[in-house]
Amino acid sequence: SLCVACHGPEGKGMPILGAPDLTHPNAFIYGSSFAQLQQTIRDGRQGQMPAQQALQGNDRVHILAAYVYSLSRQEQSAESR
């Protein structure tokens, strides 16, 4: 629910807020690998995205990173068809 406020219900993002389209791996400024996504979710990005570690905990951060990673891979898969 916190993610939806900026990234939208389908993860398409809100560029005006600086929230990238999570379904497109080229939109990730800090990298699109699983480890990079997990770090961004865990630690946040200064002035852009709040850190989620204290609020969500390790397990939820891991699950969120896996979900975001899967969203970006679905787009890649669709483009290659």
TrEMBL record:
- What's one Pfam family the UniProt record gives for this protein? Cytochrome_CBB3
| Domain of life assignment | Bacteria
Give GO MF terms, alphabetically.
electron transfer activity; heme binding; metal ion binding
Q: Does the keyword Plastid apply?
A: no
Q: Which UniProt keywords apply?
A: Heme, Iron, Metal-binding
- Which Gene3D superfamilies does this one have? Cytochrome c-like domain
Q: Does the keyword Heme apply?
A: yes
Q: Which residues form the Cytochrome c domain?
A: 1-72
For this protein, the record's InterPro entries field holds: Cyt_c-like_dom (IPR009056), Cyt_c-like_dom_sf (IPR036909), Cytochrome_c_Oxidase_Subunit (IPR050597)
Recorded protein name is Cytochrome c oxidase cbb3-type, subunit III
Its source organism is: Pseudomonas syringae pv. pisi str. 1704B
